[in-house]
Amino acid sequence: MDIQGQSALVTGGASGLGAETVRQLAAAGAKVAILDLNEQAAQELAKEVGGVALVCDITNTDSVEKALDAAAQAHGPARILVNCAGIGGAKRLVGKDGSAMPLEHFSRIIDVNLIGTFNVMRLAAARMLALDPLDEGERGVIICTSSVAAYDGQIGQAAYSASKGALASMTLPLARDLAQFGVRVMTIAPGLFLTPLLYQLPEEVQQSLASTIPFPKRLGKPSEFAQLAVHIVSNLSLNGEVIRLDGALRLPPR
Predict the structure, then answer these.
(1) Would I find NAD among this entry's keywords (predicted)?
(2) Where are the beta strands (DSSP E) in the chain?
(3) Per-residue pLDDT tens over the stretch 43-52
(4) Which of 21, 85, 175, 192 would bridge with 226, disulfide CB 3.0–4.6 Å?
């Protein structure tokens, strides 16, 4: 797809991987809507890139519908969706004190990372299918953000790994669902990236994490995630696949 002039949606677009994706899509000529719960950060970024900031709770259908309506009103119907919204959190199935993991912990992470992402995809895809096809029959492209934890989940990551593993697992069936309509579905599984969460860690901890990556021996840059997302949008043959973006990293148990 030629990105120039296309309407794009980025969930979790006010910070981290999402914010850099917003910047690079805008630099490529897209009209970008930033969907995020952090209204102030979203508005600041929207001013920077000439986009629009929309408060959106991806787990709430009414909130998503309103955001999609507002984005369409501002930029026209979206053909590009990049799902970056998500949360983390580590807890063992049974803690050191012998107590079981609270079910609410597992449910919350699944609700946001998996069900919330699916919620945005289903609503955005339905709108894409109504659009006229572009060259070679393409109507849209959807990108999800999984994680290497989908494959190498560490101790305490059962909930997070389950949510990210589900996104990876449904990439192919969703791509097959939408293939006849010319909508592609891809997923990126990043490794250790320098996001706001890792910025909060002491420098020595960041360096220790970076040392576990074979090459390049540093934390991933959000710009590298964004570069891949932009390339996926541009490359029509990329469909139904999960791409690990991790410098050959394989997470140890802890």
Answers:
(1) no
(2) 7-11, 31-36, 52-55, 78-83, 140-145, 183-190, 242-245
(3) 999 999 999 9
(4) 21
Reported as a single tens digit per residue, the pLDDT across 214-251 is 999 999 999 999 999 999 999 999 999 999 999 999 98
- Distance set, CA 156 to CA 18, 160, 186, 200, 215 (Å): 25, 9, 27, 20, 26
- Alpha-carbon distance 81 to 49, whole Å? 17
The residues that are catalytic are 160
- Please check whether residue 251 lies inside any domain of the structure: no
Whole-model pTM over 0.85: yes
CA gap 168, 150 in Å, rounded = 7
In a domain, residue 14? The reply is yes
Residues 6 or more apart in contact with residue 197 via CB below 8 angstroms: 16, 88
**Number of domains within the chain:** 1
Domain ranges, residue 35: 7-245
In a domain, 222, yes or no: yes
What's the CATH code of the domain at 96?
A: 3.40.50.720
Looking at the domain assignment, is residue 2 inside a domain? no
Q: φ and ψ at 30, to 5 degrees?
A: -80, 155
